[in-house]
Design a protein that fits this description.
Blueprint (H helix, E strand, L loop, with lengths): L1 H4 L17 H8 L12 E3 L8 E4 L4 E10 L6 H18 L3 E11 L6 H17 L4 E8 L4 E11 L14 E4 L5 H9 L10 H6 L5 H5 L5 E6 L4 H13 L1 E6 L9 H6 L5 H10 L8 H7 L8 E5 L4 H10 L8 E5 L7 E4 L1
Helix pairs in contact: 3-4, 8-10
């Protein structure tokens, strides 16, 4: 009854990872608050880089991973909102090659607008994901706020030799993407009432698909870098790959997996607002991208797939494991040497 009586997306100004502050603006916010790595020698990964989680050396060949992610509703059903938000937050641990150990919930709720029972369904959705992946949702914190917000803070562990970062790719590495693009466009189409019946539920199903393949792939020699594609779109997260490693990249347009109906919904004007913000932040590194290209490659993904950089000698094994997991397993491009002082991303095909 609760699920049918409320549309959570009508209570928020943003949706999912499309709520993210644009990367160039975020850079301004964080410019004066960088950590000196020399001050904390056990901090392997912190906010001096733009990785998915912080990593602290435990001194025994393992590191603790810690991350947080939360956002406003991208789906109407409360239970599904909890599932999507939890899957998205946990993905950061998998993107670093780790295993989640425990999570705590982050809940903001407009008590005067939405009943506590609806919030309970959101939390239950998040708890179900944690349980299915084998670890507890062990607690949390809540506040009364104008718009519904939910997410997790997640703690994990990783074998340090398998720790993956988004800045350690090499020229010549092949690029792989484990989920199709288009989540932002299809969820916008649903919010606008334009989503066809045959596409109902596809985006939710994709967003609730966990990225635990990251832990498995991290043990393969030659998997050089990994991140998850979320609110900054493929272009934004690929640019983080490139800038961190002083590289450029090529995307082979025909090989990039896309959600069914994506092109038609773009033509109907279902591009979310975050797309323009994402491209604005990347515009100097992607000058040849058409408006249509921007709508695809800058589309904010919520709980998107993993972007993986793989040395040529390891591609056969990676493709084998991706295929066995039922995931896209064709290279979508390549990391290239940087020419000049600025990373560039170009499209072919």
């Amino acid at each position: 009854m609760i699920n049918n009586a409320v549309r959570l997306t009508q209570y928020s100004h943003g949706a999912g990872c499309g709520c993210k502050i644009a990367p160039d603006v975020l850079g301004e916010i964080l410019a004066g608050s960088q950590i000196d790595p020399d001050q904390y020698p056990d901090l392997l990964v912190g906010n001096h880089s733009r990785d998915d989680a912080a990593a602290v050396d435990l001194g025994d060949g393992r590191a603790i991973l810690t991350t947080t992610d939360f956002f406003m509703p991208i789906v109407d059903d409360p239970f599904d909102f909890g599932r999507v938000a939890a899957t998205n937050a946990i993905s950061d641990i998998y993107a670093m090659g780790g295993r989640p150990l425990a999570a705590i919930a982050i809940l903001g709720w407009p008590i005067d607008k939405l009943a506590p029972g609806i919030a309970a369904r959101v939390v239950a959705g998040g708890r179900s994901v944690c349980s299915n992946l084998g670890f507890p949702l062990a607690g949390g914190h809540s506040i009364d706020c104008p718009e519904p917000i939910f997410g997790l803070a997640v703690t994990g562990e990783v074998t340090i030799k398998h720790l993956k970062r988004n800045s350690t790719g090499c020229a010549g590495d092949q690029l792989y993407l484990t989920k199709p693009l288009g989540i932002g466009v299809l969820t916008t189409a649903e919010k606008q009432g334009k989503l066809q019946d045959k596409h109902q539920g596809i985006a939710t199903q994709l967003m609730c698909q966990p990225n635990q393949i990251g832990q498995q792939l991290s043990a393969i020699p030659g998997v050089n870098a990994m991140t998850d594609v979320t609110g900054f779109g493929l272009l934004g997260h690929l640019l983080e790959f490139c800038e961190g490693g002083h590289l450029s990249a090529r995307i082979d347009r025909p090989t990039v997996p896309l959600m069914e109906g994506l092109v038609d919904y773009i033509a109907q004007g279902c591009t979310p607002g975050g797309t323009a913000r994402n491209f604005h932040a990347c515009r100097n590194s992607a000058r040849a991208f058409s408006a249509h290209d921007q709508s695809i490659f800058c589309d904010p993904q919520t709980s998107g797939g993993l972007l993986i950089a793989v040395a040529p000698y390891a591609t056969a094994e990676v493709e084998k494991q991706l295929a066995a997991a039922g995931l896209p397993h064709q290279s979508i491009g390549e990391l290239e040497p940087m020419v000049g002082n600025e990373s560039q991303i170009r499209l072919t095909g």
